[in-house]
Amino acid sequence: METRELRYFIAVAEEAHVGRAAERLGMAQPPLSRAIAQLERRIGADLFVRAPRGMTLTLAGETLLREGRTALAAVEAAERRTRRTVATPGPAPVVLTAKAGASSELMAKLLDAYAAEPDAVDVEVVLSPPGHQALMLRDGRADVAILHRPFDDLSGFDVDVLNVEDQVLILPAGHPASRATSLTVAEATSIPGLPTPRWPRLDGTYPEGPGPELRDLTQVLQLVRLGRAAIVMPESARVNVRDGLAVVPVSDAAQVTTVIAWPPQSVSSGVASLVRTASRLFDAPRA
Amino acid sequence: METRELRYFIAVAEEAHVGRAAERLGMAQPPLSRAIAQLERRIGADLFVRAPRGMTLTLAGETLLREGRTALAAVEAAERRTRRTVATPGPAPVVLTAKAGASSELMAKLLDAYAAEPDAVDVEVVLSPPGHQALMLRDGRADVAILHRPFDDLSGFDVDVLNVEDQVLILPAGHPASRATSLTVAEATSIPGLPTPRWPRLDGTYPEGPGPELRDLTQVLQLVRLGRAAIVMPESARVNVRDGLAVVPVSDAAQVTTVIAWPPQSVSSGVASLVRTASRLFDAPRA
DNA sequence: CGGCGCCATACCGCCCGGGTATGACGAGAG
DNA sequence: CTCTCGTCATACCCGGGCGGTATGGCGCCG
User: Fold this and answer.
1) Which residues numbered 38-57 in chain A sit less than 7 A from strand D, measured from CB?
2) What values do phi and psi take at A88, rounded to 5?
3) Does the distance separating the beta carbons of A43 and B79 come in below 8 Å?
4) Which residue has the higher pLDDT, A27 or B221?
5) Angle A269-281/A104-115 helices, nearest 10 degrees?
6) pLDDT over threshold 60, residue A286
7) CA B131 → CA B154, B174, B200, B213, B215, distances in Å?
8) Other CB atoms within 10 A of residue B283 CB
9) Cis ω for the linkage preceding A176 (within 30 of 0)
10) Closest to B103 in 3D by CA, of B125, B123, B124
11) Nearest CA to CA, how far is A206 from chain B (Å)?
12) I need a surface site. Which of A184, B138, B141, B162 has the fewest CB within 10 A?
């Protein structure tokens, strides 16, 4: 199978529509139809069921979509890292990616401590939207990432645990519920008049639901301050809490684990020393 | 980058010789030369240094070889698993791979216990040469594997630890060294007249050294019995020890960890239940 | 029942990947 | 110093395949 075929397949699978997929790929519809048919013949299995409105995946198609995405990311990573190998004759800089607004205190400490190391190399920090960090690590755009269980998919990475914390509910100051000393998740997410905001999925669309659609932490906190929402977050988010906000522990929420993650078989000495610094600084239990 | 280009590059890199690589790929030399040159142009970096005798990798080339191998394996895995998804309409059978002769007792227990489970599916056991298990898992020929640290590269897999054990020296019965109650690695591998056998590397070639070249456990034990060799092995290999052999603990040898490993994002329910059975049966400390 | 939306088929042209023949170039032998 | 050999690169040709346009088949819906 060629990566071109894989790209075509993934486009059609994601759009569920040959015409739109062709447009996205910058080509005409018929050759794409033919390429998909050829792929199905070569694989020896139907990948789509042709419905009168678009196409949907078969079981085999779902397998290929899941595995093919990581495979394609691996190929892109190989190409990207090869390019970067030659670009810099000196010590290779390290690209670190993290979710904008999360673990900022921890990252500041890490970067300060690392810069003081004798073997430190340049660290380029890339703040990307929630959920994109793992993708960037998989396709070679980043060398190392700060990720959070259970939100990010850590599978396939080597990781070191940096921190484990509980979650809290952030809600408008003065709201009756803010007088509680502790809440359950069920209680926290069903307070009348304070719906849970919705975050965009990886493809930019929003899940269905009653809450407002939001894109970053600042927006959320502003909305909470206005008495229009409440949100459950790791307690390290307290550092962002100023006037107008109240915080209540959520007793039964999943613990959030902050990890530093890097691709297996990484040979970058910069990544290795950065990870070493992180483990020395934080080195939390493996919970 | 297309997988075809990647295959070509890997062939040339491994052979360090365009002519031989072309032969191995079943094509003529000139188009292969051209393909490599095109790849270098597209990547924007020299991958080889042209020497009068063959070609050697640059730094960028080494990166592409390392990352490209896993990427290519991922693409092949995607294709293979897609084929296998459709092949069987019923519950999907599971392919388990393990090193021939290793952990046989543990595997027997596991397979017996699993077969008795209510949700058990067919398990196809593939015994392959040492070191090939991880490859098979990476390229989709197997769904789950029994691996051994520190010998196998576990990076990128999800694992459960099943067993941790020390290593012992197996030597001819009656040999003076067999009267020792314990040996160090240095002592065990430098007994006059008892060289350590050499095992083939993944590509089938042998490392340099004084010991005999061998291919499987039976050969080794026979040679030891004949007084021509001695070998350090995990102590579970004692079950293979019969007349004519002696066993001495090796105090400072690395502990051997037996794990069950599977690809991340595996969705096979068969793999999941097999792993569950294994953890329940053995569930060793995570040392 | 007509029109529409969507995918498949038919057919064509051109690019590119593969083949053969040959050149360039450095190493080593004499 | 030169001849030869080994190795990779270049030149050139050919054919398959990929992408393009035009059009057909076929459910759905109005």
Assistant:
1) 38, 52
2) -120, 115
3) yes
4) A27
5) 120
6) no
7) 11, 33, 10, 16, 12
8) 12
9) no
10) B125
11) 24
12) A184
Which residues of A sit within 8 Å Cβ distance of B? 1-4, 6, 43-47, 58-61, 63-64, 66-68, 70-72, 74-75, 77-79, 81-83, 85-86, 140, 153, 155-158, 264-265, 267
Q: Is the CB of A192 under 7 A from strand D?
A: no
- Nucleotide in closest CA–C1' contact with B53: D7
Token couple for B40: 């270098």
- Angle, nearest 10°, between helix axes A29-43 and A18-25? 110
DSSP alpha helix (H) spans, chain B: 3-15, 18-25, 29-43, 59-87, 104-115, 132-138, 185-188, 217-225, 269-281
Answer whether any strand D atom is within 7 A of the Cβ of B37: yes
Q: Is the CB of B18 under 7 A from strand D?
A: yes
Q: Do A64 and B71 touch (CB under 8 A)?
A: no
Q: What is the mean pLDDT of chain B?
A: 87
Cα–Cα distance for residue pair B153/A71, rounded to 1 Å: 19
Of residues A68, A79, A156, nearest to B264 (C-beta): A156
Measure the CA–CA gap between A35 and A152, rounded to whole angstroms: 34
Question: What are the contacts of A17-25 at 24+ separation with CB within 8 A?
Answer: A17/A54, A17/A55, A18/A54, A18/A55
**How many CB atoms are located within 10 Å of the residue A267 CB?**
14
List, as one string, the DSSP characters of A123-168: EEEEEE-TTHHHHHHHTTS-SEEEEEETTS--TT-EEEEEEEE-EE
Ordered by where they begin, the domains of chain A are 3-83 (1.10.10.10), 88-165+256-281 (3.40.190.10), 167-249 (3.40.190.290)
Compute the distance between CA of residue B142 and CA of residue B77 in angstroms, rounded to an integer.
9
Of A45, A70, A77, the CB nearest to B86: A45
3-state secondary structure (DSSP) of residue B247: strand
CB of A3 lies under 7 Å from some atom of strand D: no
- pLDDT tens-digit series, residues A28-63: 999 999 999 999 999 998 999 988 777 899 989 999
Backbone angles phi, psi at A130, to 5 degrees: -50, 135
What pLDDT does B257 receive? 93
* Tokens linked to A188: 């926290």
